[in-house]
Amino acid sequence: MSIKRHESTAVYSKVTEANGLVFTAGVIPTDLSRDCEGQTVEVLAEIDRVLALCGTDKSKVVQATVWLNDIRHRDAMNKAWGARLVVRMHPPAPASKAS
Contact, 16 vs 26, CB < 8 A? Predict the structure, then answer.
């Protein structure tokens, strides 16, 4: 099996390709002054960037897990998610969780 790691540090790789699959590390916002929708926009842009490193894009995402600090932010997250999702007819299986 071929494994290719991108943007690796001593403790993790930002994105890893293995056997035709792409795995991203937890992608989090860096600008915490933004509201949930703005943070989601930032995270989705970063996901676009790291998927492009592997020659792919969101249209091929199968599953996504979203962690929110409060489940009441889910509507704001879904607004940004829905506006930027490439494949509206075949969206990935999502899981929204709050800690």
Answer: no
Helices 36-53 and 74-84, interaxial angle, to 10°?
40
Residue 31: CB partners within 8 Å, gap ≥ 6? 38, 39, 42
How far is the CA of 2 from the CAs of 12, 21, 63, 65, 75, in angstroms? Answer: 18, 10, 22, 25, 39
pLDDT tens digits, 4-56: 999 999 999 999 999 999 999 989 999 999 999 999 999 999 999 999 999 99
Give the chain's domains with CATH numbers.
Answer: 3-98 (3.30.1330.40)
